[in-house]
Amino acid sequence: MKFKHLCMILMYLSEGVAACFLFGMIFQQSLIDVLKLGFIGLIATIISLYFHLLEYLEARDEEVDKR
Fold first, then answer.
1. Per-domain residue ranges of the chain
2. What is the DSSP string of the chain?
3. Which of 18, 24, 42, 53 could pair with 37 as two cysteines, CB 3.0-4.6 Å apart?
4. pLDDT digit string, tens, across residues 1-36
């Protein structure tokens, strides 16, 4: 995995968690609820990254097959 892809993964993770914390604080929920939202957002982001990785690997395999 290239450094660029690692940076993209870290970016997705940080954006997902930050968005959930932001929404929790906008709606003025308790800290426990905000942490729950952050955890759910982290899980959703990891699942999204998994599917992005599958698409990347499939596209790379097709490119190798063309050669």
1. 3-66
2. --HHHHHHHHHHHHHHHHHHHHHHHHTT--HHHHHHHHHHHHHHHHHHHHHHHHHHHHHHHHHHHH-
3. 24
4. 676 777 777 777 777 777 777 776 677 777 787 777
